[in-house]
């Protein structure tokens, strides 16, 4: 249960590059809290200095989060207000803070979001891929086999998929995505958002692979990869229907006509069905 005097935990988003993206509420909150818990206090220093914010700080990163959260909860229970920030963007989004928020909520602490930049949402907002449904996949595993396995689990995903990726893995991730999702699947690479060398490239996966293989200079920086989901209708009809439809039509019609009609009904390519029909007739 929350004690009478408990303070508030503010989860504060900070810029992902351009410092002008900080919100007025973020500045006001960072100025009024008693303490700031930052992913890396050295990394946070220039940002805080830029906005003339001076506060006692403590670090909370992936390696010490569980140990640090006990200390932060103590401060909160004693009535102090604490702001949680990460190196960039929204805390907890591929950044530390989840355990702290979970425990603070379980203990009835008041938790207030101060929303702002997030690379995944910034990339999605300009990608031109469907936004009605999407899934945030964070970072793929570093090892290539585990990465491929993870992508294979997404083979039938119909929502737009958002991945964070390190620059030195950009090309190999795009290659594996092409292998798993096919040459023609639409994808977007959003790089260095809000910064000087911001670029957003939207192309089928095969073209993205060729482009980044050719230009190692463009593999640098911070990267979000977005992949369009599978077309639900197309995938259903292509997976189960074409052969069945072709069989029915072949029993009634000449081969060429059956293949053409089956193609119109199922969306499968005519030459694929024609070859299939030829094999069946042999
Ligand atoms: N919490 C952050 C957020 O809200 O987006 C994400 C932190 S995660 C440790 C860092 C990753 O986010 C980078 O490796 C990159 O994939 C992505 N990212 C962060 N800033 C970016 C930017 N300016 N442009 C593109 N991607 C960015």
Short description:
The radius of gyration is 25 Å and the shape is elongated. It is 44% helix and 18% strand.
Structure description:
The chain has 3 domains: 8-117, Tetrapyrrole methylase, N-terminal domain (Cobalt-precorrin-4 Transmethylase, domain 1, 3-Layer(aba) Sandwich), CATH 3.40.1010; 120-235, Methyltransferase, Cobalt-precorrin-4 Transmethylase, Domain 2, CATH 3.30.950; 239-281, no CATH class. The termini are far apart. The chain has helices at 24-32, 41-50, 65-77, 98-106, 119-127, 144-152, 170-181, 205-214, 232-240, 242-250, 255-266, 270-281, and strands at 8-12, 35-38, 57-59, 82-85, 110-114, 134-139, 160-165, 186-191, 199-204, 223-227. The protein has a 5-stranded parallel β-sheet with strand order 3-2-4-1-5, sandwiched between helices. Strands 6-7-10-8-9 form a 5-stranded mixed β-sheet. 44% of the residues lie in helices and 18% in strands. α7 (170-181) runs antiparallel to α8, α10 (242-250) packs antiparallel against α11 and α11 (255-266) packs across α12. It is an alpha/beta fold and 282 residues long. The protein is elongated and about 85 Å long. The mean pLDDT is 92. β8 and β9 (199-204) form a beta hairpin. S-adenosylmethionine binds at residues 16-17, 86, 88-90, 93-95, 118-120, 164-166, 190-195, 222-224.
């Amino acid at each position: 249960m929350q004690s009478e005097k408990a303070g508030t935990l503010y989860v504060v988003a900070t810029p992902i590059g351009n410092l002008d993206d900080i919100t007025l509420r973020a500045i006001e909150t960072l100025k009024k809290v008693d303490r700031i818990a930052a992913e890396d206090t050295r990394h946070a220093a220039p940002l805080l200095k830029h906005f003339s914010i001076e506060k006692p700080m403590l670090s909370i990163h992936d390696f010490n989060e569980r140990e640090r959260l006990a200390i932060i909860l103590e401060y909160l229970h004693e009535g102090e207000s604490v702001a949680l920030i990460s190196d960039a963007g929204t805390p907890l989004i591929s950044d530390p803070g989840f355990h702290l928020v979970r425990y603070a909520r379980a203990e009835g602490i008041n938790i207030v979001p101060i929303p702002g930049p997030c690379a995944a949402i910034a990339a999605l907002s300009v990608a031109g891929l469907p936004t009605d449904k999407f899934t945030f996949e964070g970072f793929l595993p570093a090892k290539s086999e585990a990465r491929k396995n993870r992508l294979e689990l997404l083979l039938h995903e119909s929502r737009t998929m958002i991945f964070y990726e390190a620059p030195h893995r950009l090309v190999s991730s795009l290659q594996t995505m092409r292998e798993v999702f096919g040459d023609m699947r639409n994808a977007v690479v959003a790089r260095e958002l809000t910064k000087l060398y911001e670029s957003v490239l939207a192309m089928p996966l095969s073209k993205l692979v060729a482009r980044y293989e050719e230009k190692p200079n463009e593999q640098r920086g911070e990267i979000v990869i977005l992949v369009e989901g599978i077309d639900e209708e197309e995938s259903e009809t292509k997976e189960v229907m074409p052969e069945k439809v072709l069989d029915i039509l072949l029993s009634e019609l000449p081969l060429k006509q059956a293949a053409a009609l089956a193609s119109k009904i199922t969306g499968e390519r005519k030459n694929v069905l024609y070859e299939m029909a030829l094999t069946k007739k042999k």
